[in-house]
Design brief:
The protein is mostly helical. It contains 10 helices and no strands. Belongs to the TRAP transporter small permease family.
């Protein structure tokens, strides 16, 4: 599936819209600052902004506050310096960046899924001992070793591939899920052979397909819409309700997920990722449970970015600006 955003066909210039642009870029700035601060809290023991309100404000918390202030200042400076930038150009530029993030995530789960499933199979069947020494064999049985030394390099390789690839892998990932399910059926009923890693791989890829494709589906207006009055509205009124709903429901939901999921070292996303958490099957399954926890964060991040793009497109529709994005026919 190729990226169908038409940034090259959108004029970068348009009537000034400082307030919606400032809101949109400030939202992205706060998101970036939030993620940087999460790394500082989890990885370096910073206290978080909550310390400002708990009477324990030290130098570290002021550094974190400065990160937010600096990010907002950059967003405001960009908006002020590009006062004639069109809403639709901003929206498509944000969308294209989001597409890159999604493409990176898809390549990452493809590489990690294939490699980790292979490692799990060799670990279960005791094949590593045929050509590796004892210490290395034991390392391949430790999630805390496989994560940093196998998974992270593969995620880095996925980043490089995503830079040069211009295709989104939704259909291919869906095909791989079907192939993996078919392999389970054949191995179980024909060869009476089954391992936990086979189910792990299907769940891993299916979760990625469902969560990562959501943002791109929003771009093509492919999510289920409970439509009572909406279809009878004109473009201007649709733009108003889309912009309003994006803020009150879409962005709010994403921020709730982010706040709960990244709310400290013991939160539902940070804790599994920090500990390279694995399933209860232990060494007979794949070491990817911690990544599936991270999927929730990636979902919220990419959806929030896409909601910002959708908000700008909706405001442009409300203002009657040219270049309205028509969803792909398959989205309906």
């Amino acid at each position: 599936m190729a990226d169908t955003s038409d940034l090259d066909n959108i004029s970068p210039f348009g009537p000034p819209a400082p307030i919606p642009r400032l809101f949109a870029w400030s939202m992205l700035a706060v998101l970036a600052a939030f993620l940087v601060n999460n790394v500082l809290v989890v990885g370096y023991g910073f206290p978080g902004l909550k310390a400002l309100f708990a009477g324990g404000a030290g130098r570290q918390v002021w550094v974190q506050a400065a990160i937010y202030a600096g990010a907002l200042a950059v967003a405001a400076g960009y908006v002020l310096s590009t006062g004639d930038r069109s809403l639709r150009w901003d929206a498509r530029a944000i969308h294209k960046f989001n597409v890159f993030l999604i493409r990176w995530a898809f390549w990452a789960v493809l590489l990690v899924g294939v490699v980790d499933a292979t490692i799990a199979f060799m670990r279960v069947e005791n094949l590593f001992g045929l050509f590796l020494d004892g210490d290395t064999v034991r390392n391949f049985g430790k999630a805390r070793w496989v994560g940093p030394y196998v998974h992270i390099p593969l995620v880095g390789a996925a980043f490089v591939i995503a830079l040069f690839s211009r295709t989104l892998g939704f259909p291919w990932l869906a095909l791989l899920i079907v192939v993996a399910e078919l392999a389970i059926v054949i191995s179980r009923f024909v060869f009476s052979y089954e391992q936990a890693l086979m189910g792990d791989l299907v769940r891993y890829w299916y979760a990625a397909l469902f969560l990562f494709a959501s943002a791109y589906t929003l771009f093509d207006d492919g999510h289920v819409r409970v439509d009572v009055l909406y279809s009878g509205f004109g473009l201007t009124k649709k733009g108003f309700f889309n912009a309003f709903g994006t803020i009150t429901m879409g962005m709010t939901t994403c921020w709730v997920i982010l706040a709960v999921g990244f709310g400290g070292k013991q939160s539902i996303i940070n804790s599994p990722v920090m500990n390279f958490e694995i399933t209860q099957t232990g060494g007979v399954g794949m070491f990817i449970k911690y990544q599936m926890a991270a999927f929730l964060g990636i979902f919220a991040i990419t959806m929030l970015i896409q909601f910002v793009s959708y908000f700008l497109e909706s405001v442009a529709d409300m203002r009657g600006e040219p270049g309205h994005h028509e969803p792909a026919p398959s989205a309906h």
